[in-house]
Specification:
The protein is an alpha+beta fold and 191 residues long. It contains 7 helices and 8 strands; from the N terminus they run H-E-H-E-H-E-H-H-E-E-H-E-H-E-E. Strands 3-8-4 form a 3-stranded antiparallel beta sheet, with no helix packed on it. The protein has a 3-stranded antiparallel beta sheet with strand order 5-7-6, covered by helices on one side. Helix 4 packs across helix 5. The protein is globular, with a radius of gyration of 20 Å.
């Protein structure tokens, strides 16, 4: 555990959302002798796969090396974006421009799909498309972000607003960065 004297008063080493929704306690149980489908990993992807398999009539077991949802699915702060990594230039170099554009479009469709899934399943996770501020740690990074918005990948609408340094306090309450960009289609949820 980290030395808490290094952190601000009130620092807690556990995610704040665990106060409202503590992680489930799944005591170890004997494994069944046979299942139709074994899903390794209890994050968003694993649980969604298990849900679809079970709804398809398959006996399904989810296992994880840690507590349920221990990894990235509950530790990313609930950030959801349509972004794809690597960026367009790297994708185009590896797969060609048309395929790179289709990959990026899939990221945008996935965000819309997630919103529909949460609505249709009535999942109480405070999902909202509220935008996300990307701070520039240097003037050079600000220019890189600005270029991404001014010259988006072909056929991709990058919905974003420039935030110069003099106005960034309205977004983050600080002038420590060199401005940034608000990507307006990014979302958040309670992990």
């Amino acid at each position: 555990m980290a030395d808490t004297a290094l952190f601000a008063p009130g620092f807690k080493p556990l995610p704040y959302w665990w106060e409202k929704t503590p992680p489930p306690d799944f005591s170890e149980k004997p494994l069944p002798k046979r299942v139709d489908a074994l899903v390794v990993g209890s994050g968003y992807t694993g649980l969604h796969a298990a849900l679809q398999l079970a709804r398809g009539g398959r006996s399904t077991l989810v296992v994880d090396a840690e507590a349920a949802g221990w990894g990235c699915s509950t530790r990313n702060g609930g950030q959801v974006s349509p972004s794809i990594k690597p960026a367009y230039a790297a994708l185009a170099k590896s797969y060609g421009e048309e395929r790179a554009r289709r990959i990026l479009e899939e990221g945008h469709r996935s965000l819309a799909w997630l919103g529909e899934f949460i609505r249709d399943e009535a999942i109480d996770c405070d999902f909202r498309v509220s935008g996300r501020f990307h701070a520039a740690h240097s003037p050079r990074l600000f220019e890189k972000l600005a270029r991404l918005v001014r010259i988006p990948p072909p056929g991709i609408d990058v919905a974003a607003e420039f935030v110069p340094r003099r106005e960034q306090a309205r977004e983050i309450g600080s002038d420590a960065y060199h401005g940034g960009v608000v990507f307006t289609r990014h979302a958040a949820l309670d992990p």
